[in-house]
Amino acid sequence: MGMLMKRIELLLAVSAVVLASALGAVAQSDSLGDYARAVRQEKRPAAKMVYTNDNLPTNTTISIVGPPPASTEEKPAPKAQDDKAKTAAKEGSAAENKAPQAEQQWHDELSAQKKKIADLAHDLDLLQREYKLQAAEFYADAGSQLRDPKKWAEDDAKFRTDIADKQKQLDDAKAQLQEMEEQARQAGVGSAVAE
Questions:
Q1: Interior CA angle at 129 toward 127 and 134, to 5°?
Q2: What is the Cα–Cα distance from 68 to 17, expressed in whole angstroms?
Q3: What is the C-alpha separation between 2 and 68, in angstroms, rounded?
Q4: CA dist list (Å): 165 to 28, 38, 60, 114, 168
Q5: How far apart are CA 195 and CA 87, in angstroms?
Q6: Is-above-0.85 flag for pTM?
Q7: Are 36 and 30 in contact, with CB atoms under 8 Å apart?
């Protein structure tokens, strides 16, 4: 029994040492975590100044790189600056108002052209269907082929001419749409307006 007691005591002593080192590691990791958080907070950059029209200084210059350059030009009187600023603001707002109007105008014109193309395509489809129906009817009835072959030839020629004319109108309308889209792009209107 003495030997067993010594082994138990030894096992308890080893367990106590392991437990103590584990608790020390846990305590140390908490302090390292606290230390890391403190270092991160110290290193946070200061809030950058964001300039807007409301807080932009008017009596000094803003330098990002270095001191302002020496200027030999005469500075206009403050009233002249105010007048120029007002004029520029009016021109800017006029340009801003014209831009949406121009975009809306292009959008309307392009939409109208697309509707015209859709209508022409629909008409062409109807003509082609009607032609196929008449051809099927003509070829299905052998007697009509024998009774009046000249009428069928005239009707066939008329349908083919009508279909060709409608196809040409559709192709012209598509080409005109492409030209309009290119003109809109050159006028500075976004591609989203064309869609």
A1: 95
A2: 68
A3: 91
A4: 89, 81, 71, 19, 5
A5: 36
A6: no
A7: no
Residue 159 near residue 131, CB atoms below 8 Å? yes
Burial class (CB in 10 A: 0-12, 13-18, 19+), 123: middle
Q: Which tokens hold the place of 125?
A: 């489809």
Q: Token pair for residue 113?
A: 């052209």
Q: Could you give phi then psi for residue 57, rounded to 5 degrees?
A: -70, 140
pLDDT for 72-100, tens place per residue?
555 555 555 566 666 665 565 555 556 67
- Whose structure tokens read 């950058």? 48
Coarse DSSP helix, strand, coil percentages of the chain, rounded to the nearest 5 percent: 80, 0, 20
166's tokens:
């409608």
Measured between alpha carbons, how far is 56 from 62 in angstroms, rounded to an integer? 9
Alpha-carbon torsion, ordered 108, 112, 118, 121, to 10 deg? -150
Distance of CA 170 to the CA centre of its chain: 31
Cα-based torsion angle of the residue sequence 45, 50, 55, 58 in order, rounded to the nearest 10 degrees: 100
